[in-house]
Amino acid sequence: MSGYDIKKFDYFAGRDLAYSFDCLTGVLLREEIVEYINYLLSRGRPFSFALVDIDNFKTVNDTLGHINGDRVLKKAAEYLCGKVGEEGVVGRFGGDEFMLVLEGTADYRDVWNLGHEINMNIGGLRFEGLKGVSITFTMGISRSPVDGGTYESLLALADKALYRGKMKGRNCFIIYLPEKHRDIDITKAGEKKYTSMYLCSRVFMYLTESENIEDGLNYLFRHFAAYFMVDHICVETRGGLNFQVIHRLSKNRNFSRLDYDGLKKYFNNIGLASFNKVEEMCMEEDSPVLREMLGQHISSALYCKVAAFGTEYGYIRVDMTDTVRIWQPSEKDIIVVMANAIGILLHYQGKTLAGLPLQEAYITGQEA
User: Fold this and answer.
1) Model pTM greater than 0.85?
2) CA dist., res. 227 & res. 199, Å (int)
């Protein structure tokens, strides 16, 4: 890639790199990345290794053609190079997968912050001449020396983490942790337990483990916020917000009620409203509720009505702040199931969301 300077790293400084780059994307060839990793391992230098997959890329080729697919690949490569900046190098693993090597970056918190920066801002990428096209990444990350001493072992662990991310619903990054991911076997169908069907069944389990629906809502929302890495989730009624879970990196810690009636026009026939790019929507229409969302730093949102047997109780509200997020079908499926399950429980228990005890906002993400 023209202007992509990797000679700041001593391994590349004195080498002839004329034939080291992928001709389409301009990033390093796979074999160059492998040799670089072996060099770092031989000298005991800490680093992180990431596999990056463009989600549902086959759909881009099938709907827009391979020429436009190539344009998306090139733009994705440019984006990754810009995000790693002085911290690493980018290579092409093959097809729609890339490789990142972050020399000197192996601390979990540092890797997490960079992963969050890469993953949560990809939705804002623009493709000239391809209006409405957006992409997301799934990333699997391993670290040296904590995770392994060979390229093969680091690749295998990053692959497990990537697989875990795909089973979570894509559009996320996973840092390999042995206590969480050691037993993943990507060759076994049993790992499909992480699909939407499995997660939907968990919704009912979380909500019914306790006799008090408020305990179930607290547990469910905390699990959802961590699992899908969202900045804010709560239930909203005409009276305000309750059961709030806020990520520690959220640009807003003081969310407030939106115009309940103003949101009505955005809900579809199943009671779901999806906002991928609030700022762009606000530029296209003068909507008070969209301006309210921007005022709370909300860049993307997913809302779903909680209703059952003709009674509307409020809605589940999921927000991202200052990072564009392209909501995946699996995420939409889960929130619809959550809303329907909560509505049914409220109906049969004779309760309302507004009547449940007010809970103090819970800050999550401290473990990162």
Assistant:
1) no
2) 10
